[in-house]
Design a protein that fits this description.
This protein is of the alpha/beta class. It has helices at residues 2-27, 34-59, 65-81, 88-119, 129-137, 145-156, 188-200, 218-225, 259-274, and strands at 124-128, 162-168, 171-183, 204-211, 238-241, 251-253.
């Protein structure tokens, strides 16, 4: 299975990388500078990683997510490092750095795309941080000035990756703050604090995690759900994890259809618009 999985991920990655890179070149009629070529490379990497993990999760539903992600990482290293022994070390270092950048952005965009498909037609959507910034700059966000000032600080500090948007009678409101992490273990303490601040500011605060291996340790479960002496309160309204099978309080298993997330997002939007004064840390989707 592992060899088949790796070959599948390698083929998916390479085919999408080549397709995206050539499409970007075609838009410029083949006249591509070195700077543009680098930009195309970054965009093609993100697209290749996003498509490969999406296809792999659907094709190998019983395979551990960490194994799939590792296979795509190896495919990425293969493309970046090549076969020249003299340059392999430097190229692999460069590949590792580009992976860390591209894989994080690819996961954010995958979450946005799958959430958008699930929420289509509901009036609720998930957008990237840069899209929220565009709404604010264009004066197209209907939140109160206090909200907007707070959101601008989050954007400036690059705190959240995505945001929940609710549209009512043509007006757009930001009601949720979303983190999207391929693995959160090394950053869970850092990411928990801004989430608590978001909940204290009466926003829905959630996190998507690709690899939930760290959840085997009780400390991390308590950081999410609360209930321990060290962490008496929950750190998020909910954590949605692609690699767990059973719910544990506020830790929710999520499949590629995002159905459970859709239900929670609609509940959160309704709570925010109708009963925001009670949208605190204790709120929990049914």
């Amino acid at each position: 299975m592992k060899n088949n999985c790796y070959q599948f991920c390698l083929d998916s990655y390479q085919e999408e990388y080549n397709r995206c890179f050539e499409a970007l070149k075609a838009e410029h009629k083949g006249r591509v500078s070195s700077k543009l070529s680098d930009e195309f490379d970054r965009e093609a990497q993100k697209s290749a990683i996003r498509l490969a993990i999406t296809n792999a999760l659907r094709t190998f539903p019983s395979e551990p997510v960490a194994e799939l992600w590792s296979a795509i990482y190896r495919a990425h290293l293969f493309r970046k490092s090549g076969i020249s022994d003299l340059e392999t070390i430097n190229k692999v270092i460069s590949a590792d750095q580009s992976w860390k950048k591209s894989s994080g952005h690819a996961f954010e965009e995958m979450v946005k795309e799958l959430a958008s498909l699930a929420l289509y037609g509901t009036g609720v959507e998930i957008i990237l941080q840069r899209d929220l910034n565009t709404l604010i700059k264009a004066n197209e966000l209907a939140n109160e000035p206090r909200d907007i000032a707070w959101l601008e600080k989050q954007i400036q500090g690059n705190i959240f990756d995505l945001y929940g948007i609710l549209t009512i009678e043509g007006k757009k409101y930001c009601f949720g703050c979303v983190q999207a992490k391929t693995s959160i273990r090394d950053r869970v303490t850092r990411d928990r604090e801004p989430s608590i601040h978001a909940m204290q500011s009466f926003f829905w605060s959630i996190v998507f995690v690709l690899d939930g291996d760290f959840l085997r340790l009780p400390k991390f479960v308590s950081m999410i759900n609360g209930g321990s002496e060290e962490f008496p309160e929950n750190g998020w309204h909910g954590m949605y994890v692609l690699s767990v099978k059973e719910q544990n309080d506020r830790i929710y298993p999520i499949t590629m259809d995002f159905d459970l997330f859709k239900s929670h997002a609609l509940q959160a939007a309704d709570q925010w618009i109708k009963r925001r004064q009670w949208f605190d840390l204790a709120w929990k989707a049914l």
